Amino acid sequence: MADRPDLRTAVRSAVAEAAWYHTAVFYQVYLRSFADGNGDGVGDLAGLRARLQYLRELGVDAIWLNPWYCSPMADGGYDVADYRDIDPVFGTLADAESVIAEAHAHQLKVIIDMVPNHCSNQHRWFRAALAAGPGSPERARFWFRPGRGESGVQPPNDWPSKFGGPAWTRVIEQDGAPGEWYLHLYATEQPDLNWENREVRAEFEGILRFWLDRGVDGFRIDVAEALVKDPALPDVATRAEGSGMPWEDQDGLHDIYRDWRRLIDSYPGDRLFVGEFWLRPVTRLQPYLSSDQLHMAFNFDYLSAPWDPARLRTVIDATLSTVGAAASWVLSNHDVTRHLTRYGRADTSHDWRRDPSTVDLELGTRRARAAALLSLALPGSVYLYQGEELGLWEVDDIPDELIADPLWERTGHLVRGRDGCRVPLPWQAGAPGFGFGPPGAAPPWLPQPAGWRDLAADAQAGVPDSMLELYRAALRIRRSRRLTVADSLAWLDAGAGVLAFSRSGFSCVLNTSGRLARIPPCEEVLLASGPLVEDMLPPDTACWLSAKPSP
Ligand code: GLC
């Protein structure tokens, strides 16, 4: 019948509309800094298993785990040596299976990181490529090229590594002489895979199946914009005005994601792909979010927006009008300065460059509390980064010799990198290492600031005005209101500097102005991020209201 495909599409999009992930709150577990179960100072699966109840009580719907695969850890696990096994520092494959099963028993979905752009230089494929030499099928899985200039001493093109320095490293061939170069958009230890190569595609389909068969609910796709390169590998310095980078947003990506979508749709349950695309503005995500490709993508425009009502509103409107039901709201992750710290600086936007300006943590905390209520009120899914529910700040004073982020070495010690948001969580105020590990454990792999004592989870639990209790209350209310993507947002006029909107009998008001703001008429103030002043909303405070019943 001619109308069959349309009908199928319609049914599929109706199902997709109702999928759990469109309204879910995801909690990002940066495993090596979450909880240490075996006492070696590094977070692991045993630590996570022991804290699943905490996550359940927090009220999130799902966890996203950063890479847990076998890895030499040149980039915190984003250099994968074996995609089908767990790194011993985290546990075993059996532990991973237990985490999936136990998370499910706690009503928590589990999505895991997939790293398809590059693998580790210790991956068996890359070792085989080095051994096999130029022109071999083993090298064709990567981007090996002869160098330029006399004897090939210059890299094949001018691409920079995102971690500093050139994106190419020259290898020593079997005869002991310098030979070809290979491409790595990130660290030297992270050779880029060649997605033109059929074996690469087949291998990743096998890896996806391996984990889907073990019950994961989806994948976060690392560096989702960069898998496909312009095969001519053109220099960027001489590219045409207005043309994009030859390693991002290339047409061929869509075919990969269409194949992956068919694959994941063949599994029962609503499983998802969420893409990490640093493509801005948010409108550039839309082509990847059609119903035959990815389910959602992180909203980095929202993360990057300054604490400015007009800019926030613009991002919110652009998101909802372009990606609609696939909207997500993200403020922090393991790659960026924690938003509490950003919001306490003079420049509140996210920027990769290190901002040395002083931080007003009290102001940052107030805004972070308000921002939590804003994010959790918007239509769409929300991604929380571990520790934001405790009000953790960016740690700016990690001793040089302890810095693990490859950015530090690759930039010749110019950029300290991302360790400041990766400091192990404080669980118990009174315990060594704030209870990151069991009694007698080695100290956490990065030192925690003494000031985190008051932010330890056990110091906040049950304390009504703590950050933890704010998140718990907000998540409880969010869950009980059961708002769906159909409960769309209508802006309310609440005065200059005040963002206010309603969604089906529920409203959120955020005061970013420097003065008290009037709270619109309501039946009840459900929750506020800080104390109200004579029924007025103080600066940098948000509240949730239930609507006044219509007369
Ligand atoms: C992504 C990850 C980041 C990692 C990079 C290379 O951006 O989030 O942590 O360093 O990819 O894999």
**CATH C-level of the largest domain:** Alpha Beta
Number of helices: 14
Give the names of the bound compounds: alpha-D-glucopyranose
* Helical coverage, percent range: 25-40%
Quaternary structure: single chain
Radius of gyration: 24 Å
Mean pLDDT: 94
Report the end-to-end length measured between terminal Cα atoms: 51 Å
Quick tags:
single chain; about 550 residues; alpha/beta; TIM Barrel; Oligo-1,6-glucosidase, domain 2; Immunoglobulin-like; 8-stranded parallel β-sheet; 5-stranded antiparallel β-sheet; 14 helices; 20 strands; disordered N terminus; binds alpha-D-glucopyranose
Summarize the structure.
The protein has 551 residues and is α/β, with parallel strands linked by helices. The chain has helices at residues 4-17, 45-50, 52-58, 93-105, 124-132, 198-213, 253-265, 300-304, 309-322, 339-342, 361-377, 406-410, 457-460, 467-481, and strands spanning 25-29, 62-65, 69-70, 82-86, 109-114, 144-145, 168-172, 178-183, 218-221, 272-275, 296-297, 328-330, 381-385, 490-491, 498-503, 506-511, 517-518, 524-528, 536-537, 541-546. α11 (361-377) packs parallel to α14.
Describe the structure.
- The protein has 551 residues and is α/β, with parallel strands linked by helices.
- The protein folds into three domains: 19-117 and 198-393 and 425-460, TIM Barrel (Alpha-Beta Barrel); 124-183, Oligo-1,6-glucosidase, Domain 2 (Oligo-1,6-glucosidase, domain 2); 489-551, Immunoglobulin-like, CATH 2.60.40.
- It has helices spanning 4-17, 45-50, 52-58, 93-105, 124-132, 198-213, 253-265, 300-304, 309-322, 339-342, 361-377, 406-410, 457-460, 467-481, and strands at residues 25-29, 62-65, 69-70, 82-86, 109-114, 144-145, 168-172, 178-183, 218-221, 272-275, 296-297, 328-330, 381-385, 490-491, 498-503, 506-511, 517-518, 524-528, 536-537, 541-546.
- The strands form five sheets. An eight-stranded parallel beta sheet has the order 11-10-9-5-2-1-13-12.
- α6 runs parallel beside α7.
- Residues 1-5 and 7-16 have low confidence and may be disordered.
- Alpha-D-glucopyranose binds next to loops.
- Alpha-D-glucopyranose binds at residues 75, 78, 115, 186, 222-223, 276, 334-335.
